[in-house]
Design a protein that fits this description.
heterodimer, A: 8 helices, about 70% helix, B: rod-shaped
């Protein structure tokens, strides 16, 4: 494991901690897309089905369990917590799941390396993760007064993706048998989706103004 | 088999 990969994972973990702090600390999920959170839960479930059959390291197994646990908790809080669910912007969070899930499923079926249930679902999770942030970005555009925690959550998530690209570049040059075109392509697409957000995030940071995304 | 050892990322 290289430093970019570790830093990327830590950013990912930190993004989830920030989100959980916001949700449980101030008892509000305002500005957070439940659709994106449910898509991430689906991504983790379909990707980590091999959790008990394909042991890589204790680190990997623990992280997988943490991601599954925390994303389940976030979805639970947003859907069922008596107080928190009242702060969910349901009317604004209108992105259609099918628009992201259906193409990911078709692409997974068309391009899977091997046709086993685990492999097709793993491929599906790669495609779906690339686009799962879109409902969140659309919701951010519609949210007036984006709070710091929400802005930082999306920023940390985008940083995680950027660091994974550095990790792949590093691995490409240091490991002979590391060639994952599908993962790389999806990863780059996913990172490009964040570009617009990053631009406005840095602009607000530089000008010391509140983050706002133009519609 | 080529793919097996490559699924070491999260």
């Amino acid at each position: 494991m290289n430093v970019f990969r570790l830093a990327g994972d830590m950013m990912h973990l930190l993004s989830i901690v920030v989100l959980l702090l916001k949700i449980t600390g101030i008892k509000s999920c305002r500005g957070i897309s439940l659709k994106t959170q449910e898509l991430y839960l689906l991504v983790f479930i379909t990707r980590y089905l091999d959790i008990f059959t394909n042991f890589v390291s204790l680190y990997n197994t623990v992280m997988k369990l943490v991601f599954l646990g925390t994303s389940s908790a976030i979805v639970y809080y947003m859907r069922y917590d008596r107080i928190i669910k009242l702060t969910y912007d349901k009317e604004q969070d209108t992105f259609k799941y099918l628009l992201l899930v259906a193409p990911s499923a078709v692409l997974a079926l068309a391009t899977s390396h091997v046709y086993t249930v685990l492999e097709v679902l793993w491929t599906f999770s790669i495609y779906l993760e690339a686009v799962a942030i879109m409902p969140q970005l659309v919701l951010l555009q519609r949210t007036q007064n984006i709070d710091n925690l929400t802005g930082n959550y999306v920023f940390l998530l985008g940083s995680y993706r950027g660091l994974y690209i550095l990790n792949w570049i590093y691995r490409f040059f240091t490991e002979k048998h590391y060639r994952q075109w599908l993962v790389w392509t999806c990863g780059v697409v996913q990172t490009i989706i964040y570009c617009d957000f990053f631009y406005y995030y840095f602009l607000s940071w530089q000008n010391n103004e509140k983050l706002a995304l133009p519609a | 088999a080529e793919d097996e050892d490559e699924k070491d990322e999260l």
